[in-house]
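For homework, think about our next protein:
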Amino acid sequence: MQFTSQIVESAVDSLSSFPGIGKRTALRMVMHLLKRPEMDVANMAQSILKLKTELFLCEECATVSDTTRCNICSDVHRLTDTICIVEDFSDLMAIESTGQYKGLYHVLGGLISPMDGIGPSDLTIEKLINRLETSVVKEVIFALSATVEGDTTMYYLAKRTQPFSITTSSIARGISVGGEIEFVDELTLGRSLVQRTLYTLQ
């Protein structure tokens, strides 16, 4: 692709680094930005910059937050004896949108995947174990994607949580095998939470 401006080319290269964004789509986005008022573009750039400079990871559940403790962990109306374990922030948001869950969360920051070099120590599993040691938790819900990595992570977590004698359950498999949580429709995801099943070690 031939550019008449190095500034435009640089912007296209930056935008095309996003997942699913090719050069042509990135160019359309740049052309759109060129037509927007300068203040709009400045506000957008500032919002993106704040993602790296002003976001925190919640000290309790490890989700992204504007403060050191997120609004879910700070909500006195949430059920503190239930923790729903998710892979990342987008899965948490997907579950919240169903309106079916009123407990707390724990964000792992990924899934165990030896093929990708991701082991238990790369996730927030130790933070989870610490929460279980210092809090009164009756149930842990595994809301992980129905993939090999998701199943591997669930098995590992079930082994680690076994000494606490708490109920472990997993969301019902209304989600297709190989499906990603964040892409499941709200009705199916909500039903999966309500109809969750006990998770037992084989």
Strands lie at 56-57, 64-65, 79-86, 103-107, 139-142, 167-170, 197-198. The domain at 6-53 is CATH 1.10.8.420 (Helicase, Ruva Protein; domain 3). The two ends are 55 Å apart (CA to CA).
